[in-house]
Amino acid sequence: MEFSVVFQSILIITIMIFIGVVLSKTFPFNEDTRKLFISLIVNVAMPCIILSSIFKVEINKDTFKLMVLVFCLSIVINSIGIALGWSITKVFYKDSNKKRELAILSGLGNTGFIGIPLCATLIGPEGALFAAIFDAGVDFVIWTVGALILQKNSRFDLKTLKSMINVPTIAIVLGLGTAYFNIKPPILMIELTSQLAALATPIAMIYIGVLIMTLKASKVRESGSQIWVPLSVKLIILPLTVLLLIHVYAFNPVINQTILVQSMMPTLTLASILFSKYSADEGMGAITTILSTIISLSTIPLMLYVVNMFFVF
Fold first, then answer.
1. CA pair distance 294, 152, nearest whole angstrom
2. Is residue 241 part of a domain?
3. Quick check: 200 and 41 in contact, CB under 8 A?
4. In this predicted structure, what is the pLDDT of residue 235?
5. Domain that holds residue 232
6. What residues are paired with 267 via a beta bridge?
7. How far is CA 20 from the centre of its chain?
8. What residues form the membrane-spanning segments (predicted)?
9. How far is CA 104 from each of CA 100, 107, 174, rounded to the nearest angstrom?
10. Selected residue with higher pLDDT from 190 and 52
11. d(CA 184, CA 169)
12. 44, 192, 224, 292: which has the highest count of C-beta atoms within 10 A?
């Protein structure tokens, strides 16, 4: 990885977030506008990134094996993050009633909104493909491990399974299906998905910029005594753990880079929505998401700089 590319990508992301901050003054941010942003990102831009990445990469038997490996690694890495968050919270806040929220916020990152576009920029189409598979692993953990932790009855049922069926997941299945059966999509479809995929980063970053302006100081102070746990685990401890993992097992260089970048992502953007669904503290989810996103603008390039200084990929 070229550090100059990393720095330029983070700088562009910062500018886009700032544009969102400015635009937040020009329209009311309510439930309808929030749903519009999320719908465009989740149902249009993200599926097109996935399809575009698959269309641009020559997928063979070996590539499929690597994709399965990345999916499994994603499940392991995210589960480790959740376990670390739970353990640290139990040590420092034994009587806290926010263990569930803090554990989820520690393990699950913004591997879709930020991770896939960043991997596409830093590593190329193959990196974007593996990043999409990693994100599919995150979705799997959200609606299995995450749902089980957040549900009071801790039961995996048909409703939970149905929640795993979403547009990005369908895009992965369709894309892999076309690759497996060697179906070449029309040039029009390739060009369309490529152009729509370009919407992902700008819309997601502008959305985060708008979200920043909803942050209330009183709520930050209320949750501030505990959210250092997910911030430290998600942005520092988990990436260092992944760095140790890839140093020991020495996977494919592209996979090494992809899972390392994905492990550095800030907390899941949809955390507050997930918490709301299971009657958890959605305010803590929103605050942690925003603060981790802001802090990650410094930690991501710093961590990658350290990696480039001391490790060779």
1. 32
2. yes
3. yes
4. 94
5. 3-306
6. 109
7. 19
8. 6-24, 36-55, 67-89, 101-123, 129-151, 163-183, 195-215, 227-249, 255-275, 287-311
9. 6, 5, 29
10. 190
11. 20
12. 292
Q: For residues 130 and 136, what is the distance between their CA atoms, to the nearest angstrom?
A: 10
Q: Is residue 273 within 8 Å of residue 103, measured between CB atoms?
A: no
Check: pTM over 0.85? Answer yes or no. Answer: no
**Res 155: pLDDT:** 59
Q: Is residue 313 part of a domain?
A: no
CA neighbor of 69 nearest in space, from 136, 1, 168? 136
- How far apart are alpha carbons 244 and 213 in whole angstroms? 37
209: domain CATH number? 1.20.1530.20
Q: Residue 110: what are its φ and ψ, rounded to 5°?
A: -80, 60
Question: What whole-number distance in Å separates Cα of residue 83 and Cα of residue 111?
Answer: 18
From 205, 287, 269, select the one nearest 19 (Cα to Cα): 205
Residue 244, both tokens: 């140790």
Q: DSSP assignment, residue 109? A: B
Helices (H), the chain: 3-23, 31-40, 46-56, 61-92, 99-107, 116-123, 125-141, 147-150, 158-163, 167-180, 187-197, 200-212, 217-223, 228-232, 238-249, 253-263, 271-277, 282-310
Q: Does the residue 204 lie in any domain?
A: yes
